[in-house]
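Task: encode each sequence below as structure tokens.

Item 1
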Amino acid sequence: MRTQPRQLLRFIAAAVFLLLAASLPAADDGGVIPIDQIHPGMKGVAYTIFSGDTVEPMDLEVIGILRNALGPKQDVILVQMHGEKVEHSGVVAGMSGSPVYFNGKLAGALSLKLGIFTKEAIGGVTPIANMYDIQNALPTAPAPFPATPTQTSGPQAFDGAAAREMKVAIPAEFSQRAPLGAGNYLTPIETPLVATGITPAALAQFGSQFAALGMETVMGGTTPPSPEDANLKPGDMVGMQLVGGDLSLTAGCTVTAIVGDRVFACGHPLFGFGSSSLPLLRGHVVMTLNSAMSSTKIMSTSGVIGTLTEDRTTAVMGRLGAAPPMIPLEVSIATPQEEKHFHFDVAEVRQLTPVLVALATVNGISTNTAYSEGTTLEVSGTIDLKGHPPAKIEDYYAPTDAPAPGGIQVAFDVLNIFTQIYNNPYEPAHVQKITLDVKLVPERRSASIESAWSEKSEVEPGETIRVKVLLRPYRGEPFIQEVPVTIPPQASRGPLQLLVCDAETLNRTTQAFGISSQLSGLDELVALLNRERHNDRLYAALLQASPTLLVEDKELPNVPLSQINVLDQRRNPGGARLLWQSSAGEWSVPMNQVITGQRTLTITVK
């Protein structure tokens, strides 16, 4: 009689074990199921994390199959999920990539959602076969996948603003199941962009650019690395890092499948940029924030576990192992009382790196406690390039009446210079390091040019005259600044224009910038950028009505007409450009404040 209870206990224990094992994604290892074997009414399970690192199952039922929904042979499995948590939260940002199984076989990844304010958790699943198509995009054929992969899935991706516009129409018999006003379209599940150590003001300046790529910015955190970080399983969270160091900007997705050292996630692209190189981090879910409009996972990230190598239409793929190189950005902030140093690491993504550099720059400046909107910024720095001279960054930035803070002005100028170098048309620019030194002056240091005059209006070649300029500082008394101007011995006889101005006006007048496509290489572009005038100086330029030839990064004034005729007859004049005005001389004096304005005088050379 005692034998039966023992057998019964063993039977119960075995049943409990099997039941628990069935709730884990690793147990669903029966291979993959093709979409042709999936039909309406079929029941399955998906795996995701709602909190911590616990992968939980979500029951689901197939509503139907949308053929060619995302493009030729890009089908979508329309499903409705069941369970207390998912019915409360709906489809959650960061859930994309959650593996979906039918009869223990991998079908794909949850990647699309139906509208907003819906009361039913309806989503779209990208078939696993479409995710594995990433291997066909690789330059060399990878090793064949095992017959029984661990997991996978993925929807479609969108490039730029198209991410917000990509929609899949729902047939009428399916859309009737959604409440009125939810929208009869499937859209990509948002990717949480986890921001740590970034001020809301800095993030707001660039948030729209990330939103256009289908990313939803959320606050998050970081945790210390752990030896267990690389022990991934399907349903876990991973982060794709854009910026690291003293701030962190990381996109989060769910792991769909792990095949050898390859990790498939998201079920749709981050950006659709193709071959990529982003650090792959272990992600942890702090909590799921439920919202009637848009629920999202609040994440933290820890150790680096590999490299994201492919960002394709139906999924992203990475390799476990070492992290890729990033661009170091050092920002030093100095005040009369103290000096602070910030270090950032910026990922190399051609379409995004300039924006990421600008974001890190403004965040480094604005997080200093001495920074305020009444602060003048004195900025100097370099962009170090492998095999080329460094590009210099040097200027003053005074507060203005515009709503944009001074730190944004610095960021946009750094963005402009960096973009021209990084996206140059000549060769890949290998940026080794970016260094910025910023001095904060707690006052508005700027002055505008009100008038200018010369002690003489008729001069001899070689003669020096003193040009006087009346400047009015911000909330200060006007003062006069002298600029000594020496008439060149070779100056043309007759009337000449003497332009007294700021740096921007002189740059625009000579038109020596913005012609990088006509240069012969990256060295010439860097030389041209390094010659840009600085706005903390007062300039005087003597202009004469004779042609100037711009050849690559060089200015050749007073070009003979015979040479111009020769260039006109050449099909490709080597990047030359002709201006119908020449500079006979240029002079400047440092002012230690931002100068704005211009005045023009007429000087007659006898």
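Item 2
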Amino acid sequence: MTAGVPTAVDLFSQPEYRIEGRDKVSGRMQYTADIARPGTLWAAFVMSPHASARIVRIDRSGAEAVTGVKAVLTGADIGPRRFGRQLYDWPVLAYDVVRFIGERVAAVAAETREAAEEAARAIRVVYEPLPAILDVDAALEAGAPVLHPEWDAYHFPVFNGRPRPQRPHPNVQGAVAYTKGESDLTPIFARAHRVFEHTFHTPRQHCGYVEPHAALVWIDGDDVVHVQSPNKSPFALRDQLSFVAEIPPERIVVETSAIGGDFGGKGLTIDEFACYFLAKATGRPVRHVQSYGDELTAGTTRHRTSMTLKTAVDEDGKFVAHASRVVYDGGAYAAGKPVPLLVPGYGYGAIPYHVPNVRLDVTCVYTNTVPAAHMRGPAEVQTFFAWEQHVDIIAAALDRDPLEFRICNVMREGETALTGEAMHHPMGREVLEQLARESARTALPPGRARGVSLVCTHTGGGKTAVRMRLSADGGVEIVLGVPDQGAGVFTAVRRVAAAALSIDPERISVRRGTTAEAPMDPGSGASRVTHIVGRAVEDAAQKLRAEIARGASGPLEVIGTFDGDHHGDGTLPDYTFGAYAVDVELDRATGAFRLCDAVFVADVGPIINPTAHRGQIAGGFVYGLGGALSEEIEIDEDGRISTASLGDYKLPTVVDVPPLRTVYVAAPPGNGPHGAKMAGELSNSGVAPAIANAVSRAGGIRIYEFPITAERVFAALTNDSGKAQR
């Protein structure tokens, strides 16, 4: 539109201040907990002390006597209202029974937070304890109590009236089986050169965002429900509330506040539903801000996982068959999972090795523990922890170099992933070869050992739209329905728009709109935003240029759209590959070890914002580091979470982080704007297996679960059962 501006290549090569950066660092940014309206009431909740019990009686008289209390609600008052991202199985307030410690049983609205909390403490609930199922093995026994006998009646909109899938056990949330190649693997395993089988475990974890969940809900004079929320999928939240409240979605306006970090945890938020019923009962705005105690003891977690992997190799060390049994602990409710199969993501579809014959059995199970939901790399973190150690064990048993062995078996063009999916220009070999060159440059000093890992991550799709407006003075405004969950979305969008319109970025403003103003969007997640929103921005820019070419003048408005799900158009999905080499120094006398150095190699297309890209890689490394070394939600034998504070949970700090060097390998263009590829969830899932492999090489032992603590390493060093299975 204006000559003389930098080309896209020039523009993208320059770092840029974030659009929202000044507000964040100055303290002017408004988060949900900062927002109130005149007459706002505070909400508080009564939470179950039992993992499994029947609600016999609730006495609310003590709460109603507290000064300032305006409403007290129970499940009996609102009925069996349930919410979820796919399966609506989680009650707004427990109805008839409770299924985990911390489940909400009653809600209070009062003039002050203190009054609300006092009133909640004054409510008396009589329970009849029931047998609790706290692990998946007990849940899958033939005579186990059924946690959700009414499962078939739950709302499940994804199936659109089609028959529900069959479950192998009534305590299963979801199950899926993949088969590739031969359906019967028994003869292949029988005649294979070598067969290896190992079992790995991963724990529950918290997402670790600094801003806790919060909500503000009010109903205006036109009977329109307004929701202020940190939910990163506002249109999905609107639709969920529409179903739960039994009101049309057009009468609900969701506005996502600034999000103080997401890491996968803010696709499901639960406060909005109870706050709506309290606002309806009182006729006043109602808000709730969770404490970190609430977050850690009753909030959703990463799925605890057990994985048994069995792989056959031929005389050349090539994989010929693989079978896995993966069992996820889904907790009391499946509501936090956005995928229709009700298992936590598709981690096995990202395994970057070619195996011609595969059988995968993946099951997610109900237990009387806190509900599990998606977290950054929702299945990849668990899957790669197991797979990349499994590969290392096999390489060692065959006396093969771990990098060379991976290069031997990595997927190449024309081959398919374990689930049979083809990839757009798989770059695993190039990434591994570059990692080998980088590793050769730094010889290990005495006392150190090095572990490696290879990962790849899918670039998500989805259908989205953006609104682009050209004003009479030549300024351009872009209105998005997708929130910025902390990744710098608005800055990337402005850069894409500036390149597409050939104008200075300073002429472009970007803002998120409410669900009443912005076009429909699936929300942040699945590393899809740059891909689909960027392409929608390019479409809008093309339409705006066409309007101008036809002689139209400002103000103008166009809607840009993009559907990244391909729908059989022959476009292969993008996967981005990454590989780690991590050096450790181990004290065999104590099991303590120190991370000395880390190198990460990734394949990339054009990078739209170099600063944000580096931040995603480094942030993902630190995120993976915490999960690998210290983070674990621990549950007592009665089902109660004992890691009730950040002091117990132990997020990593800067002193825990070793030097990290990132090396990029140029890749063919991806499917994003200007050929961009994802970076968001790439770098965290390979950290734990690389560390585990380094510790194994340093100590001659194998750690089959994380976090990889000094205590676990010491136990393995002093116990033959900790040695690697071969």
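Check on item 2: The longest strand covers residues 319-331. The longest helix spans residues 529-549.
End of task.
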